[in-house]
Amino acid sequence: MAVVETERHGHILVVRMNRPERLNALSHEMRTRLAETWTEFRRSERFEVAIFTGTGRGFCAGEDMKESLERGKPGGQRPAIEDPFMSGALEKPVIAAVNGPAAGAGLSFACACDVRVASDAATFVPGFVGIGLVPDSGGTWFIHRLLGFARAFEWMCANTRLSAAEALDWGLVSEVIPSDGFASRVAELAAEWAARPTLAVGRTKQLFEHAFAASLEEQLALEAELQQASVGTADFREGVGAFLEKRPPTFTGT
Q1: Which residues contact 3 (CB under 8 A, 6 or more apart)?
Q2: pLDDT tens sequence across 94-113
């Protein structure tokens, strides 16, 4: 049984962590397969958006500590910076479909995605400090950006579990979906993202990521550069044409 399963639905790639008997705890093999999958997604011209989720009743329970200790690497195998998912190199959006518990590195993975939606059965647990470790897998970087220093620091150290409703209240997820309609709503959401002008979406993501460390002058310069590049796209011509003709646009990502 593959520890990472993928499905292809038109321009949508579904990436599913697949160790349900372990609540999709991260093994060394799973991390390796995920890095390969995200590299394929990044390079492919076929896919416009990815759904990242788990098999069974969990999203991801974090690092498989039993395997980590057996490998002599307590705290887990660290993700390589070359992994396009962890390095922020993906220009296409990834939706975290948090179907159940997300803990430790699994929480970090959910927060590394561009959009997070949760089943009403989902929970969010930092995990790390509770066993005497510090957050890893990019958790401090992503969660700090999402929640701000004070709330992120307090939550990571308190190690309290958030329900899906609490995560929505905090702004950690954008939508909570009843379990029985979760898969269909996630598919609908992914289709909405796939129909958008993906070059513009990717460049917008690039701009927001750049803004964290840029001066205003640097940000304005990059905005001007990417705007000029966008004016020359087929999607821009289609968007303007659809606006003038009062019809829905059909974007092609070119």
Answers
A1: 17, 18, 19, 27, 29, 30, 33
A2: 999 999 999 999 999 999 99
CA-CA-CA-CA dihedral for 2, 31, 176, 171, to nearest 10: -170
CB atoms within 10 A of CB 197: 22
Rounded mean pLDDT, 70-75: 68
Model confidence pLDDT, tens digit, residues 165-178:
999 999 999 999 99
Residue 221 confidence (pLDDT): 98
Query: Distance between CA atoms of 84 and 162, rounded to whole angstroms?
Result: 28
Which pTM value belongs to this model? 0.94
d(CA 34, CA 83): 9
**Ordered domains of the chain (ranges, CATH):** 4-194 (3.90.226.10), 198-245 (1.10.12)
Reported as a pLDDT band with limits 50, 70 and 90, residue 67 is: confident
Spatial separation of the C-alpha atoms in residues 30 and 214, rounded to whole Å: 35
The CA distance from 49 to 191, in Å, is 8
What is the pLDDT confidence band of residue 127, given thresholds at 50, 70 and 90? very high
**What CA–CA distance (Å, rounded) separates 169 from 31?**
31
